[in-house]
Amino acid sequence: MTKRSPFRYFKTSPEIIRLAVMLYIRFPLSLRNVEDLLHERGIDVSHEAVRFWWHRFGPMFAAEIRKRRISGMKSSRWGWHLDEMFVKINGKRHYLWRAVDHEGEILESFVTKKRDKKAALKFLRKAMRKHGRPEAIVTDRLRSYGAALREIGASHRQETGRWLNNRAENSHLPFRRRERAMLRFRRMRSLQKFAAVHASVCNHFNSERSLTSRANFKMNRAAALAEWRGLCAA
């Protein structure tokens, strides 16, 4: 049976939809900024159309990227960096937990109202269910991590240190820039949805340009863009 295209009921071409979704998720732009950028390219769409496309296709694109990458990320079991960041929703503090591997890939994002043992345990189990158990788990000195790791029998894998967790700390920066452009979030559900999609898109286009030559960087960037343009193709 031939797989139906998810774009079959849309008058706008898939190329424009993919471009709009990529601009909105990847760069710190508002919906109206994306509308203006598309208008400069001769594409007349409203910011509400961009909003609908992101909600409809963003998780779909992220799921396909995640499916392709998880199968080839066995090295992510070598070492994880765990950290949580503060995010305000309607003036109330929430916590966005992140698991990042030793190469900077964001493995898992999880939103909770608290950062106690129960929340840490739920986050760890969710990440390990998808990616397996790592050889080492680097955390800060939050006691919730130690209690959760003892619960699942992995306390001997934990490592803490003043500068050891910089990998996870730096992974928050693109999301912080995106959060400011969106003027924060209003619901936990929307935060969880955007964090998961944003992580997959960042992983897809992330390239350590300081560690590679210009020629290799351009080649990797072109390959990532070509793969993005083929997402959810019929």
Automatic annotation (TrEMBL):
<keyword id="KW-0233">DNA recombination</keyword>
<dbReference type="InterPro" id="IPR047930">
    <property type="entry name" value="Transpos_IS6"/>
</dbReference>
<dbReference type="InterPro" id="IPR012337">
    <property type="entry name" value="RNaseH-like_sf"/>
</dbReference>
<dbReference type="InterPro" id="IPR032874">
    <property type="entry name" value="DDE_dom"/>
</dbReference>
<keyword id="KW-0238">DNA-binding</keyword>
<comment type="function">
    <text>Involved in the transposition of the insertion sequence.</text>
</comment>
<dbReference type="InterPro" id="IPR052183">
    <property type="entry name" value="IS_Transposase"/>
</dbReference>
<feature type="domain" description="DDE">
    <location>
        <begin position="78"/>
        <end position="206"/>
    </location>
</feature>
<dbReference type="InterPro" id="IPR036397">
    <property type="entry name" value="RNaseH_sf"/>
</dbReference>
<protein>
    <submittedName>
        <fullName>IS6 family transposase</fullName>
    </submittedName>
</protein>
<dbReference type="Pfam" id="PF13610">
    <property type="entry name" value="DDE_Tnp_IS240"/>
</dbReference>
<keyword id="KW-0815">Transposition</keyword>
